[in-house]
Amino acid sequence: MASVQMYNMNGEAVGSLELSDAVFGVSVNEHVVHQAVVQYLANQRQGTQSALTRAEVRGGGRKPWRQKGLGRARQGSTRSPQWRGGGVIFAPKPRDYSFKLNKKVKRLALKSALSSRVSESKLIILDEMRMSEVKTKTMQKVVDALKLGKAMFVLEGDGDDVRRNVVLSARNIPSIKTSAVNNINVYDILKYDTLVLTKDAALKLQEVYS
Question: Residues 46-64: what's their mean pLDDT?
């Protein structure tokens, strides 16, 4: 089992936490990680792009000039794609880009992403992350104490007021993202330079994915 240093909100080492190899020590499968990232990005697409084909553009019903005898190329409509104001060839239409992954594939991808953070020393464990009030300045002090750049904080949940204060305090810091442990995804884990887990969140991940 991997042992990771644990810190408090002041950036002081307060012990260590043993992480399960079944979740944080698996062999990284780059293929399933890539699949999970592609699926996440595809599922974020709204799919509302739309343009008109030549059949849908208004006008162009009359032949602009006669077929032969003028020395010009034959034309049947002023709404053909080569005309200004004409339709679009193979015009994009609203569609659903989302697709599904098997549950086992998604679990393996998440474990691989978490394991890569551990192996690259980009995982920080906090003994707890609690704030009595909404204060961006306090959250920034935590970020500075841990010497973080672009980081994601993962909390055990977001139901109580204390965790809600953390989320609201962090949302105005561009380089910081917060997430509940049941909402994390492979894309965000890899997007941010550092993954910060509370002790409870790390134990919850081990409980769910072991």
Answer: 94
Distance CA 182, CA 189 (A): 13
DSSP-assigned beta bridge partners for residue 176: 151
Residue 190 · residue 113 · CB < 8 Å: yes
pTM as predicted: 0.83
Q: Do 132 and 169 meet the contact criterion of CB atoms below 8 Å apart?
A: no
Mean per-residue pLDDT, 28-51: 96
Query: Which pLDDT value is given to residue 175?
Result: 94
CB burial readout 38-73, b (16+ within 10 A) else e: ebbeeeeeeeeeeeeebeebeebeeeeeeeeeeeee
CB-based contact 19:4 (threshold 8 Å) = yes
CA–CA distance, 123 with 116 (Å, rounded to integer): 9
